[in-house]
Design a protein that fits this description.
By secondary structure, the protein is α/β, with parallel strands linked by helices. The protein has helices at about 50-60, 85-95, 100-110, 125-135, 165-175, 180-190, 195-205, 220-225, 235-245, 255-265, 270-275, 295-310; strands spanning about 5-10, 15-25, 30-35, 65-70, 115-125, 140-145, 245-255, 280-285. The chain has 12 helices and 8 strands.
Amino acid sequence: MNAETKPVVFENRSGFRLFGILDLPAARKRETGVVFLNPGIKNRVGPHRLYVKMARRFVGLGYPVLRFDAHGLGDSEGGGDENEILEDFFGEVEQGKFVGDTAAAMAWMEREVNIRRFVLAGLCGGAITGLLAGVSERRVSGLLGIGIPVILNGSDIDAAAYMPQEELASLRQMYLGRVTRLRAWVRFFTLRSSYRILLKSLFGGKGLGRGPGRGGSWTAKHRECCGDNTNPLFAPALHRLLEDGKRVFLIFGGSDRLYFEFREKYLRRHTEMLKMFEERFTLKIVEEANHLFTFRQWQESLFASAASWLSLFP
């Protein structure tokens, strides 16, 4: 199916201009629009043009697709603090930094394209933004989350202290496999190894984390809620979407450390809850794939699964 592709610009609630790309099917036959959300600090193209490829696949099915840059990212206005630590930026995203921009994007599509139902889609940070935005948005019908994070990042949170056991086991095998390599010992003695992660993977044990620091994201409330670095907003938001009758499709690479996090810090804790929503909740694992779905065969599995799920929407 041929499509019309054009650049667009609209304002968020703060008056910043947000730039994006709108793909419209030549013969529109769907009432649902798809909005792709920034994967972390990356722009609307996505890693190895992932969003572009997915947009073409979806518009070929008759869905209007918008890819845009949130404020301070890509081409959009509203730069942030140049001295901000990356972990703190990720933590802000995981707490809803771009929810307002997502609402602005849907409002623009509603006005300009006459679309009133949306599926929010994204990789990593884009997935958690879509989850949090979907809770308060009546226009959202579904979430397509790729490699969604369940933890809360921050410069005051030591992720090494709360690494999943599967990830530690994988790292342990990797480190032991390098024992006979000269280069590995050179890195070790020249202070280029990650000693905290190395020690934790080999010997385990609690207390290796630095715990609360000077930042603002790691609070006693979070520790009381989850006991580790799990994002306290994640489970309530996901359950709210499902309770409201919205569909959720989560897909992970089988080798993605975020999948290990998801299994240990969400899935095992909420298995019974998810059984109540089997018709609305779909989980797909692409074996051996990494977080970015780098190889073509991984991408094809992702695209086919996502397109099949998306076809549930009018």
